[in-house]
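Standup notes
- DV: blocked on the single-chain target, sequence here:
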Amino acid sequence: MIKLGEMQELEVVKKVEFGVYLKSPEDEDKIENRVLLPLKQVPENTIIGDKLTVFVYRDSNDRIIATVKKPRIVIGQIGYLRVVEISRIGAFLNWGLEKDLFLPFKEQIGEIRVNGEYMVGLYIDKSNRLCATMNLFKVLRTDSPYKVNDIVRGTVFSLKRGLGAMIAVEGKYLGLIHEGEILKPLRSGDEVEVRISHIKEDGKLDLSLKDAPRLQIDNDAEKILKVVAKNKGTLKLNDNSSPELIRETLGMSKSSFKKGIGRLMKKEIIEITREGIRLIDKKNNQNKQYRKNKEIKISKKSKRS
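- DV (later): unblocked, structure below
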């Protein structure tokens, strides 16, 4: 079946003066199942039976047509496109094909300007035409191949107070970084590396800017240790420090801070005092322990004599 708005492999079934006709290998060879690839798009030495990878869309005369050019976005993807014209019915975007892509007024968000670049997705409207939309919720997919703890890249496309940052994962799939996970300001258009923390029943992805829990604790512990070392082995933070002060000093939540210092204390790298964190001098401690053990041996000998 020939798919509008997608790159696909079609078979050459007929050659004419003005191009070649293509069909899907799965379809019967009927006129209604064919699409024209214009002559200027046909690769040299093409013969009947060849398979060509093409994009299918509608030309300026509203006819379904094929091209070997790949547009900047296809169905199921998003990208930044430049506005080349604004008319009374909407805007037109350059997407790399001869016919510009239409962005209807109802699909626009915010002010649109000529030469401005905007993040859009591609959809098929009620008239079976390809159009752009800035409402990415309607074009991003929820059938991702990922599993929990996979590391992926994404683009921030919306920020919602009380919810978090909406992410277009790999330009195709819908994801969310919950507000509590965001430790530094994000803006629409920012590129982020995230971990899949949960996959919902409907396929939407919960994302985290943090590593997997065990690895994240190690990373937080290392970050704390570096700051303490830079500060001559001390840091005026402890369990009683405010979340705001911890975030300002270390760029992490109080919960992450407590887990990190717990890991360092378990390894006997730091100790917590009223004044804050202090590096443990292992060499000094070993000398103290040596003297203590020696005193115990002398004491035992005195008792026996």
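- Follow-up: The radius of gyration is 31 Å.
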